[in-house]
Amino acid sequence: MNAINRYYSRINEILAQVFSEEAENMEKAAEVIAKANMEKNSVFAFGCNHAGLITLELFYRTGGMVTVNPVRAPGMMLDVSPITMSSQMERMDGYGKIIFDGLPAKEGDVIIIHSVSGRNAVTIDMAKAAKEKGLTVIVVTNMTTASSVSSRHSSGKKLHDFGDIVLDNHGDLGDASVELAGFPQKIASTSTVVGAAILNAVTARASEILMEKGITPPVFMSGNIDGGDAYNNAVIAEHKDNIFYM
Known about the structure:
With about 250 residues, the chain is α/β, with parallel strands linked by helices. Helices cover about 40% and strands about 15% of the residues. The termini are far apart.
């Protein structure tokens, strides 16, 4: 079996484990996101560096929830040079609270925070500040890695310690998944593929819950399909009080 097939096999193993073992917490996450939409509260999503790719996955795209707001802050989205600066910045105590304090977040809102290791200060500070303000904190992390590393936060705690709902992506230690004979470093990370699957499934279920309650889910249509622009403009207008990225 070559590396292509080994990666495919490992991804399928992880997804099967996630959708079995995390089913209860995925349902809880869907319920709180649906509730936020029903009660006209806001939903935010954040991750540093490659963890932030899940934030980008969730917003302003076909089939995605209109009401998911990305948290994009300087140095946190692979937008700096040298790129190593982003790794240094996510370890800075206090920066996560500064980012959070700049959000129009309030009690009753929901925030999704993604970090594979959960050890760095920015996401921990953000989760801590969010809990203190009364938000529901949904954490997506890798408990194998998080349980194997020390915290880089002054509290000694990790991201999952502040999660109201914790979703384990069940990836390998350090995220890379495929071994090559004679090469010591594993290759091919899984957290982006699996994280996207987890949260797309969660927001799909949140939309389904809204439908079950007779509420039209706030979901984007493709702008490349006839009628898409008009549809999206109407949904955006309806939910404008909970959209902060336009």
